[in-house]
Amino acid sequence: MSYAPPEENTLGVILGRGKRREADATRRVIRAATPHRSSLGTGFIGIGAAIVVGLRAIYGLAWFAGQAMAGDVYSELWAAAAAWVVLLAVLGATFVVARIIGHLPDWMFVIFCVGLGAAAALDVYSIWPLHDIGRHATAAITAGMGLLVVITLRRTRDILIAVSALGVGLLAAMIINTPLRPSDFAPQVTSLAFAVLPAIIGVVVIGGFRRLVQVELDRVLVQSTVSAPRFAVGMMASEELARLDLAAEELLDTVATGKVKLPLDPKTASVAASLATELRLHLIEGRRETWLYHAITESDHLGKSVTLNDRSSLAGLLDPQQRDGLLSTAWLLVSDAKKNVSRSVQITVGPATDSLETREGRKITVPIVIETTGVARNRVDPATWEAIRKVGHYSDSTQNSSLRVDIACLVDNPADQ
Amino acid sequence: MTAMDLIAKERDRLLQRTARVYGLSFTIVSLVCLAIPGAVDTASFFVCLPLYLLIAFCQYRIGSSRSMLWVIPIIVAGLGIVAVVTLLAPESTGEAGVSAVAQMTAASMASTAVVLTTDLRRRLFLALSFLLTVGLTTSLLLPFQPPTRTIALVVLGWVLATIIGFWISAGVPQAARRIASIGRAHRAERQASETEAQRRQGARLLHDTVLATLTLLAHSGVGVAPDAMRQQAAEDARLLRQLRLGATPTPQSSGVYNLENTNDDMVLGTTLESVKQRFGRMGLEVSWHGTGQVLLPTEVLDAFLLALAECLENVRRHSGVTQAHVTITEDETMVRAMVTDSGVGFTLDDVDSARLGFKESVVARLKEVGGKARLFSAPGSGTTVVLEVPR
Fold this sequence. Notes:
A: 417 residues; alpha+beta; Heat Shock Protein 90; 3 domains
């Protein structure tokens, strides 16, 4: 038997500065903390969507009742009434069931869509002889908005497919059924818009909300670095170290019990060599990183556009308030970016200058330079200045038409501690 | 800048984007209705067109700006469109024109309600715009359709948009609170992870011997008696197992880990002896000279011993001799170890110091505890390493 190498090489993580892997780790933490992503606030939004649909349904029902009482609209009143019964039953049942079980399985979503489709078909059938779907359709139009009931529970793609299917179906029915006269255009356009647009707007809102939750989660998880010690190992390190220790233990065990012959075959020997290298790096390098390094590498958001240059690990000397300020600054500078403008932020910390006496004791000055690309001075969020002020006295200037901030950050002299 | 401010900012951004998409899509639908032949007469259409463009531009700007400046023109221009369609040439305004007005007042203008829910001033403005729109539209549309119909539609549109605004405003802080609690849990996890990593990293002597053994194995264990190799591997595996089990607090496994030192100071002599024995098993005879008993703080001792062992390992692997001398000296401030061998030596420039592990294993560790290392060697005249740590 030969020794089975560890599943993955951690060396790349350390040498490659491990952005992706650590971001994955953050994501894993989020997953563990929230079994259903929908539970993160979208549940509340879902209720709001249901209320909106309810109001719209009341409006549609009133319209339907008006037409039914007029007496001369429906030749097949039962079909239109059945359409409303089916629609309300499907909406109500889906809302209640989804509330109880917290999510909407595929098969239930299919039933939901079939129900909406049936309601729309019944409604269109009942007004077919009138040859003016736009003016008389009620349940069919409400069905489109009904998709909002499940908007927080399904992926954007599912909702868009469903609403397109309904939209195309209605459009086809209108083209076949309704004579193409300009005087009849407006009701058709209006009805189609009221059927399709709410779901599409809903998709945009929910997309924005989910993005907001992601960004906020990212920020909050990274925020925990503010209280980290001067040097920290980061979230992945202890796990990696434990894994390496275990791999070493297993390898040594196979040697000790004689399962592999001595001298070792080259393959096992190279496994031992890489284990030793990785272990060495983990034991030595792991401690050399500051909270700021971990914050940037662990964040999906900051990791993409912030680079850190802190050769002497001076960022570790900042107190929690200064750290909070610096992190907020980076965050605000990066997060305001529009999609088509690429922003980058480079933070250079140090070298430290002479110590000086203050009322609170001896302090040293750590210069922090924030250089940016794509950040116009007048585009900076006012809150950014407040955040920078927390770090220390600053002066700002413009360099290559982008913002540059020089901060003089006073910190406790590490030699006194 | 508090977390709540950041959240409010994110919330406003979401509301603004919602209002933008909401407003723009219905503005387009309304304009399509107005463009249908027979909706309004040509003159009215061309009077309305710039108003539509203004509304669309403002709705686009609402998406990225919090300013009320972009809301007011929408209401004014929207009501202007209603007036133009219903008053300029009422005789030629058809059903499509009425539809366009309905889309404009009940959806496109109503979309501003989404961003008018966050504070009192905005809510007042919302109420005012709503009443103005309902009142004006209903009265102006009187000749075209019954007032109940207009009121029902416009009220529905504004109520829906207002609910959306309020609901998002309320939903975001709710989500933020849950996220904050996840953040607290994460901070606890970070601390736990830090402690665990420190526990493992703190087991330096253990890792030191494990690294030495792994390095031997990396060279296929050549040059070491197989039995000695197995014995060493078994010993190291046992200690690693104890380290691993230390995470679960079972009484029989805690306290067994005999390399971890709980005292603040530790006697150098006894640990030097264990290093000597280990290298003895590997075929390198280490002779000690000088001070036998030196007290050092644990972490300094760990770094010192690791560096020492690393130097001896280099002697064993590269020098070509089987004997090394270690001389320990001390004064008031420093403890010094001189590792010498009479082996082949090398030219400092020729050797990749990273390959020797010298820089990372020796220099870096000593530096961490305030010590340093110096290396002297020449081909044919052996190698001397001086290690220094503060007391």
